[in-house]
Task: structure prediction
Amino acid sequence: MGDVSAGGVEKLSEWRRPGGEAVGVAGRRVATRLRCGAVASIFAALVLAWAMPAAAQTALEDSIASRARPDYDPIGMVVGPRGSFLLFPKFTLSAEFTDNLFGDENDTVSDQAMVFEPEFKIQSDWVNHALTLAGKAVQTRYLEETGENTLDYNLDLTGRLDVLAGSSIDGGVTLARRHTGRGDPDDPGQSKPTLFHVATLTLSGVHNPDVILLRLDLKADRSDFRDVGVANNDDQDRLVLEARTRLGYEWVPGSTAFVEGTYNARDFREEVDDSGLVRSSDGWEILLGNTLDLSGVTFAELGLGYLRQVFDDPVPGGRALGPTEGFSFAGRTIWNATDLLTISGETRRTVNDTTIENAASALTSSFELKADYEMLENLIFDGTVNYKIESFDGIDREDTVLTLNFGARYLLGPNLVATAKYEFLDRTADDAGAVAGAVSGSFSTNTFRISITAQF
Result:
């Protein structure tokens, strides 16, 4: 598996299994690749042929979190040939306290940390087309538990090609390093956090000439997990290909009914994991729904449907997984209740991969409600409630995760911002002790953070 930090990311087409065996040698894997490749090729051709215009959500633009503040937004630095780019550098310094660093139910450990977050964005200032390069690093250094120190980073390149007036194609590439959080069910519980690299390619667009809507999204996502201690994290290495299309019809002004279909192919690097399970799979989802967008005040969307994830046949003598299937939903709403208050919500059910022994996947249902309040033009408060249910298919375990966030952001000027945040996280695992390989059960954590940001 390629090492991002040591030599860049290998080409997706060159990813091979240990021992030199190419991914997809077995007939079913080849068929999977051909199917997904054909879908991707057809969608890409349609994107190019139809020259899709971007669709703006005016309610989102008018929300408290997204609206422009000319007196407090950084103006950037003019750079590049003929001054055609703007550079926005930013640096954030934070002090953080947590009362349960390792996500343990009984033996809690508290610690303090300093968090350094340098970042930048270079974006074009062109009349047509757009190009943006952005990068960010997050270094967390603890006062006592120095083994928990982490350095995450990401580099994003995105662009928009304006083919015709009002028509565009969007794409991007992301390279990132992240870590598995303590208390996560897939955290192996070793002496150091698990690091992993991610490479992502995307292509998307929308075609909406009149009352007909066509949206296409393509994504290739590859994850490479590093081994920690005695834990073999190669079982989590995977390549995920996804193609999504939406067809809609505006049956009344501002209201669009749609049908959305998604296909994915998930190919794990290890054909058989350490417990003898084959985790590669193919899946699909169908959603029927409606979008409501009214006068920049209210945006609402809800889709209901069905999803199914089918796992590859087990090796001789191995155990079969899944399939994981069931009712699915996706929803989002933004309501600018007043000029000073925005209320938003989001809900989604997805199939997430897991390496918990005997578990096929985690059927995850998430519900979130957020409020942003602008007390003053330069003082914004926000609060978020997120409730998540993780049902592990194949074993008798269902986790519920409650997260509460409260924060305040004080804009001292266009170049200086002060923030304060509090987060409460509570995970309840109904039968974690009976699950082989489970290292995280029920626990709760309180985290406080104060930050100062310099931006230009």
In short: Residues 169 and 205 are 5 Å apart (CA to CA). The mean pLDDT is 85. The longest helix spans residues 27-50.
